[in-house]
TrEMBL record:
Subunit note: Component of the lipopolysaccharide transport and assembly complex.
Identification of the protein by name: LPS-assembly protein LptD
The keyword Zinc-finger is assigned to this record: no
Gene Ontology CC terms, in alphabetical order: cell outer membrane; transporter complex
Annotated localization: Cell outer membrane
Residue span(s) of domain LptD C-terminal: 310-674
Function according to Swiss-Prot or TrEMBL: Involved in the assembly of lipopolysaccharide (LPS) at the surface of the outer membrane.
Ranges where the Organic solvent tolerance-like N-terminal domain occurs: 56-131
Family note: Belongs to the LptD family.
One Pfam match: LptD_N
Keyword terms, alphabetized: Cell outer membrane, Membrane, Signal
One Gene Ontology term from the biological process aspect of the record: lipopolysaccharide transport
Length: 737
């Protein structure tokens, strides 16, 4: 062949290649039929068009044969368009039949991270019909699939013959060892329009051994983030319920709401269902967890009535943003009986709280209106004496900074408490508080607080200790002035710094007797400790007032190391100038001149260990009236909390007996895959000893999560007796389980 003829043929070849760049681009789409068709992989690529960017071709030789009208690229062929790269030993485009074929070490790198391998690919230039011979897939999440052949029909249906899929990685030391689990199917069909994956004659294998067979099953392809279907079963058993099995069903109602419904069947407690509903809308959200069943009914004392009845519970919450300032919301907690939640191991509170609220936020101001309804679950709970709070209104205004040299805050609060039987109470309060901090040239930090509050009460059915009705109206005026001084001393060292900070506070307030007309509704949970020693008003509610003048003092010393080590000690006491025994119930450590000593010790020797000790010492003999010790470990393999709590008897409302408990919660990662978990709470001053004990063993790798959990609970409450339960966990990655 002459040089001129050869040059003319090469020029023609270049021209044909340019004219057929679209055809060569189709080669990239040809392997679309080998995209992730298995349930657990990614969405199938939809093909490539010439409009997706320029096609770059690298090959040792590109030949156009005008006789056969074929373009053939050979020798380490690499065709790329955008982020998609196709490599093969040979790629051929047949112009007459408009067929693209690739053969020899075919591989396709997808922009989404998948890699496809095949021996031979053939596809028409419309990407509607074709097949791949001996296909293997490596997905971005390291899961793998393979099939003898893949066929594409109608442009959106891909069928794999004799396919196998598994997200499990081969053993690094023994790659020939069978995978932990895999799915084999005679036929797998992926419909891109319906977004479904269907399996025919499918076998589930564990370590190479077939353990389950189904002639057919299907699920959504992974491009569908939410679609209705069954989830992994829940299996377990307990002494109260017997053997229990549940089959969750997930219902994708629409793009913004869904429902997970799990029917349970038990051998000793009949059948019941548990639901979890969620909805998100443009300016709010709503969620509800609920259960419903039918079975043996128990009376208020926990005795069976001999008849069956419906039973269940609901926990719901929601909020709605009305505008930039206001939002409304609700929380609902209700149970069909006092012990239902405990018997079915949902939770074990003493009471349930439901509320409906509206609140507004304006710069430095806040407003809220709330209504509360309660359900008592203790044996002593009586619906007739359970309060209904409607409304509880609160308003706070923080005025411009530097008001009279400090910060001024105004507040208003109103509440109405109603009971069918027992005390009903209404209150309205107005208050103002002013605070000014400053630092002297010597480094002393002063804080001056001045506050005033007025309360008006209107009560019904309030009786004194003699049983005399003292209900009626009363008002009180509550001024208070306090000055606090802190003098932090810092000493730098080579490895850190030392801090010593003496603190003193003087509070001036009248000794205001508690009116017998006022019922203590919102200040029952007071606990005197180091966190509220220097609080101007140590009660969180309104019904009790931290009356009388006092002098408070304490010292804090600490060391802060450059490497993160910290050690601190705090000790303080309060001295009251007036007798306030009627304000603080016995056992609280206040109200009789000198208070108990309160303190805290913290030690963090390293980043993974934190030690905390909080205590209250009797002012006379320095014995522990309250003693809390806690160690928290947050290591790479071990996470644990170990604690000890001891509290002496209190006659406060609610009354508390001596409590002496130790508790441990720990999780230890034995290796890369195995984790052991345990927890226990042990009452040292009780013959029953352990209140609850749990032990679990879990295995987690790239393709499976399995475990077993044992729990023993010694709680006794009417029909709720000590119980032992076992639950099993099995989740298979990418199979919707």
């Amino acid at each position: 062949m002459s040089a001129r003829r050869r040059n003319r043929d090469l020029t023609a070849t270049r021209a044909e290649i340019l004219r057929n760049r679209t055809a060569l681009a189709l080669v990239l789409g040809a392997l679309a039929i080998g995209g992730p068709t298995l349930a657990v992989a990614q969405t199938l690529p939809g093909g490539v068009s010439a409009g997706e960017g320029p096609v770059q071709i690298i090959a040792e030789e590109v030949i156009y044969n005008p006789n056969t009208k074929t373009v053939t690229a050979t020798g380490k062929v690499e065709v790329s368009q955008g982020d998609r790269v196709l490599m093969a030993d040979k790629i051929t485009y047949f112009e007459d039949s408009r067929i693209v074929a690739a053969s020899g070490n075919v591989s396709l790198l997808e922009p989404t991270g998948e890699v496809l391998f095949a021996d031979y690919v053939e596809l028409d230039d419309q990407l509607r019909e074709g097949f791949v011979q001996t296909i293997r897939l490596l997905f971005a999440d390291d899961s793998r699939a393979a099939a003898v052949r893949a066929i594409r029909r109608e442009g959106n249906v891909t069928t794999l013959d004799r396919a196998v899929y598994s997200p499990c990685l081969p053993c690094a030391d023994k790659p020939d060892r069978p995978l932990l689990w895999q799915v084999k199917a005679v036929k797998v069909t992926h419909d891109q329009t319906a977004k479904t994956v269907e399996y025919e004659d499918a076998t589930f294998e564990v370590l190479g051994v077939p353990v389950a067979y189904t002639p057919y099953f299907s699920h959504p392809d992974p491009s569908v983030k939410r679609l209705s279907g069954f989830l992994a079963p829940r299996i377990g058993g307990s002494g109260r319920l017997g053997f229990r099995v549940g089959m969750p069903y997930f219902w994708a109602i629409d793009d913004n709401s869904d429902l997970t419904l799990t029917p349970f069947i038990t051998t000793q407690a009949g059948a019941y269902a548990v639901g979890d509903y969620r909805k998100v809308f443009g300016s709010g959200e709503f969620a509800a967890q609920f259960s419903l069943g039918y079975g043996e009914e128990f009376d208020g004392d926990g005795n069976p009535t001999g008849s069956d009845a419906f039973r269940g519970h609901i926990f719901a919450r929601g909020n709605l943003q009305l505008d930039d300032n206001w939002r409304v919301g609700l929380n609902v907690e209700r149970s069909s009986s006092d012990t239902y939640l405990k018997r079915f191991s949902f939770t074990s509170p003493n009471y349930l709280t439901s509320d409906l609220y509206a609140e507004g936020f304006y710069d430095r101001s806040y407003f809220s209106v709330i209504g509360y309804s309660f359900q008592g679950l203790r044996a002593i709970s009586d619906p007739d004496t359970t309060p209904l709070v409607l409304p509880l209104a609160q308003a706070n205004w923080v005025l411009e900074p530097e008001m009279i040299g400090g910060r001024l805050e105004l507040s208003a609060n109103a509440i109405a408490i109603h009971r069918d039987e027992g005390t009903s109470q209404r209150r309205f309060s107005l208050g103002a508080a002013w605070q000014r901090p400053w630092i002297t040239d010597l480094g002393t930090v002063f804080t001056l607080d001045a506050s005033i509050r007025g309360d008006f009460y209107d009560t019904e059915d309030v009786y004194d200790a003699a049983g005399i009705d003292v209900s009626g109206q009363t008002a009180r005026f509550l001024p208070k002035l306090s000055l606090e001084a802190r003098y932090p001393l810092v000493r730098p060292t080579e490895n850190g710094r030392q801090v010593i900070e003496p603190i003193a506070q003087f509070v001036l307030a009248p000794s205001t007797p508690i009116s017998k007309k006022i019922s203590n509704e919102d200040s029952q949970s007071f606990e005197f400790d180091d966190t509220n020693l220097f609080a101007v008003n140590r009660f969180s509610g309104y019904d009790r007032w931290d009356a009388g003048s006092r002098f408070v003092y304490g010292v804090r010393t600490a060391y802060y190391g450059n490497e993160g080590t910290t050690f601190s000690v705090f000790l303080g006491e309060s001295f009251e100038f007036t007798d306030e025994k009627d304000v603080y119930e016995y056992g609280k450590g206040l109200g009789d001149g000198r208070s108990d000593f309160v303190g805290a010790i913290t030690f963090t020797p390293t980043y993974w260990l934190d030690l905390q000790h909080n205590f209250r010492l009797d002012k006379d003999d320095l014995s522990f009236n309250r003693n809390d010790i806690r160690a928290t470990i947050n290591g790479k393999r071990l996470q644990a909390t170990i604690g000890y709590t001891a509290v002496k008897e209190q006659t406060a409302v609610p009354a508390q007996a001596d409590r002496d408990e130790i508790y441990v919660t720990a999780g230890l990662k034995l290796d890369e895959y195995w984790t052991v978990y345990g927890d226990t709470r042990h009452r040292l001053n009780d013959d029953e000893g352990a209140l609850s004990t749990g032990l679990g063993l879990f295995y987690t790798d790239e393709c499976v999560e399995l475990g077993a959990m044992y729990r023993r609970d010694t709680t006794r409450d009417r029909d709720v007796t000590p119980d032992t339960s076992v639950s099993l966990i099995l989740r298979l990655r990418n199979l919707g389980m």
